Amino acid sequence: MKLHRPADSRGHVRTGWLDSRHTFSFGHFHDPDWMGFGPLRVINEDRVAPGAGFPSHGHANMEILSYVLEGALAHKDSHGGEGTLRPGELQWMGAGHGIEHSEFNASPDAPVHFLQIWIQPDRVNLPPGHAQRSFDGGDRRGRWALLASPDGADGSLAIRQQATLHGAWLGAAERVDVALAPDRRYWLQVARGDVRVDGEILSAGDALGWVDEASTLSLEGAGADIADILLFTLPR
């Protein structure tokens, strides 16, 4: 079964400093048909005005990944995690048994554009944690690179779930394949640019999900700009 989630069907929240698109139900946006996808619970595409952001607030028992597309995002948490996240970097925060954190635009004059991703863990009430890693664009130009995994393989960030996150950058006509297995589920999120998936064009913000599929997909860059794509492999 293939699921379609077009960018323009997502929830939309706009305040004075935040413009946010919600792939799944979040906050005041509730859609019973889109409560998540397996343990993948949140993909919010956020644009935050210069100098603004999310003041300190709490989380528990959630794996939170932040992926910056443009600008810089400043992170600080109650367990000593601190840093500024820039394009090409991925940040993991394991909320564990409880953590307070803040996320602010690190620039006084330029917006920050990023994806906030929540994954439910397979173990609860563990100690909170934080890590941040830079991934060289050359390592994923025209091929998949492992960004997050259960065991931190190949320099990826370790997360507390039997799930992986791969990323690829595709220029025009550059291609990667995805082999789907029926004992796993898959979610493809287009972060930037355009990509052709077995003949279907997806643009930034569009997504596809697969459940109970056994096939090989072909993904190809389909625009003048680099397509930045994220692939989640999740428990069935």
Helix and strand layout, with pairings?
Blueprint: E1 2-5, E2 11-14, E3 18-22, E4 40-48, E5 53-59, E6 63-70, E7 73-77, E8 82-85, E9 89-94, E10 99-105, E11 112-119, E12 129-134, E13 145-149, E14 157-158, E15 164-170, E16 175-180, E17 184-192, E18 194-197, E19 200-203, E20 207-210, E21 215-221, E22 227-235
Parallel strand pairs: 13-14
Antiparallel strand pairs: 1-20, 2-3, 3-4, 4-11, 5-10, 6-9, 6-11, 7-8, 7-10, 9-12, 13-15, 15-22, 16-21, 17-20, 17-22, 18-19, 18-21
Task: Give a summary of the structure in a few sentences.
The chain is mainly beta and 236 residues long. It has strands at residues 2-5, 11-14, 18-22, 40-48, 53-59, 63-70, 73-77, 82-85, 89-94, 99-105, 112-119, 129-134, 145-149, 157-158, 164-170, 175-180, 184-192, 194-197, 200-203, 207-210, 215-221, 227-235.
